[in-house]
Every structure is written in structure tokens, then in C-alpha cells.
Amino acid sequence: MLTFVESLDKILKGINSVVFIHILFLGTQALPPLFSLGYHQCRWNYEDEQDVKAVDAGFDEHDIPYDVIWLDIEHTDGKRYFTWDKKKFQNPRKMQEHLRKKKRKVSHTAGRNYFFVV
Questions:
Q1: What is the pLDDT averaged over residues 53-73?
Q2: Over the stretch 18-33, which tens digit does the pLDDT of each residue have?
Q3: φ and ψ of 48, to 5 deg
Q4: What's the rounded Cα separation, in Å, for the pair 56 and 39?
């Protein structure tokens, strides 16, 4: 009779051969984008562009790294996806460039289950 360790060794060798055959024919899983593994700053609502900049500055002030800042639906014009509230976010491109220079991304919610990262 086989010991537990011997049985486990046989099972793992069998699994390894199955995994090897799978990789040989189908390839390996692509790695996710590096930023997606980092810290994502998110909260329910950012009041305006200055609020986003203040939160970003707070992270810098306290030496807390983050990779993505999420904006909720409140940044849009009348809660219409893929738009900006021109009163609250007067120059969203400049704000995004400011964050991009720091290697940070902005993520916009675009519906209940969808988002896009800029």
C-alpha cells in the first residue's frame, strides 16, 4: 500500500502532465496589466476636478502609492455615460494628463457592470 506522500506524488505528476499538455496546445494565460494589480482609490463621489486633485495630493503628501483613481457616475453630465459635467470638470483632459505624468490612471464607471480605464 502507498503512503499518503507517495499517493500525493503520483497525483501531482499526473496533474503536471495534464497541465503541460494543456500549455503545449493552448498556451499560457496572459498576464494582466501591471496597474490592475496595484492599489485602486475609489469612493462614492468626487465633487469636482479640484476634489480629485486634492485626493491625489493627499496620497502624495502621505507617500501612499496608488495606480488608479475611480470616478463614479457623478462626474458625468446628467448621469449620461461617456460624458463629463462641464461645470464640475472643466478640463478633464488636463486632469488626466496631470495624473498620467505620475503614472496614475483614471477609471470611469460606465454603467452598472462596465468601466473603462484611461
A1: 94
A2: 777 777 788 888 888 8
A3: -165, -175
A4: 13
Instruction: Kindly state whether residues 9 and 41 are assigned to the same domain.
Output: no
Same domain, 54 and 112: yes
- Enter the pTM of the model: 0.69
Same domain, 100 and 113: yes
| Same domain for 69 and 45 | yes
Each residue of 87-104: b (16+ CB within 10 Å) or e? ebbeebeebbebbeeeeb
Same domain membership, residue 47 and residue 24: no
Q: Are 56 and 101 in contact (CB under 8 A)?
A: no
90 lies in the same domain as 111: yes
Cell matching residue 109: 464607471
* Orientation angle between helical segments 92-101 and 49-61, nearest 10 degrees: 10
- Joined together, the cell numbers standing for residue 2 give 502507498
